[in-house]
Amino acid sequence: MESLNIFLRDSLFGRLLNYASKGRFFSYNVSQTLEDEELPSPNSQGQIIVGFVSPDDKDMPHNWPALARMVAGLNLLLLNFSFYAASALLTPSISGIEEEFGATTAEGTLGLSLFVIAYGIGPLLLFPLSSLPTLGRSPVYVLGCLAFCLFNIRTALAKNLQTVLVLRFFGGFAGSTPISVGGASLMEIFEPNEFPYAIAFYAVSGVCGPVLGPILGTLVIERWDTWTAILWLLSGIAAFTTVSTFFFLPETLSENILLRRAKRLREQTGNPAYHSEAEVQSPTTNLALRIIKDMDNNLKLACLDP
Known about the structure:
Elements: H1 2-10, H2 12-20, H3 30-36, E1 48-50, H4 66-89, H5 94-101, H6 105-130, H7 138-156, H8 161-174, H9 177-189, H10 195-224, H11 228-248, H12 254-269, E2 274-276, H13 277-281, H14 287-304
Parallel strand pairs: 1-2
Helix pairs in contact: 1-2, 4-9, 4-10, 4-11, 5-6, 6-8, 6-9, 6-14, 7-8, 7-11, 9-10, 10-11
GO molecular function: fluconazole transmembrane transporter activity
GO cellular component, one term: plasma membrane
Protein name: MFS transporter
């Protein structure tokens, strides 16, 4: 029951429903938080910094019930597998693209190349977005899966090669969420002694994608005798992962969890002094500037790290 409550309350579905209903659905017990938490004295600016109650705080992802952590972890494994399989699934479709649009081998292969290039670029933007306390990880997962689904549908309906190539690039960019954020989410969900096993399974799911993708792609093309069948299959998988992450992937970013806790305390107690550490550190930081700064740091790390 507690696991179900976490899914309903902290998934993107629960957060949106709580916001739309103005707290009537999936509300938190603020009075219990005030009883349990030893709130510090106001700082020099009169702010009370809201943090986790203790290392055993139930809102910390690695303190969730085992079932909730397992389901969240399996969601991430499925995301990782489906995205890595997507690039390999496209391989059997190259000959179909060449035949339908009269493309050369180089042009037919370009769609796959652009897809791979895009999912190398995607993390430079998507990870900084997922690290924003005001946004968190869940919306990035859900919107990335949804965009990936829509790009695949539009690619299947494309009437010329140029449209296919452009949409393959944006599909790779939008779908790169698992490789952008997956490792960070696993680290937040599992304890340090559990994390090596979780990341090992995560790596295996990524390896299985390219191994099984071409086999599955060939079977699909042989069954429906069209290269677009692969894209419809990818769209179906992406639609499933969109629904799965929307309902069953709770928020794991601690800064976002604490920011929402501070907001609830302000609203339900009427005391404006409650703030999270993230609000105090960057209360007026421009969103675009922060994203650009994080992208710059990630690019430097990618290029300069030995």
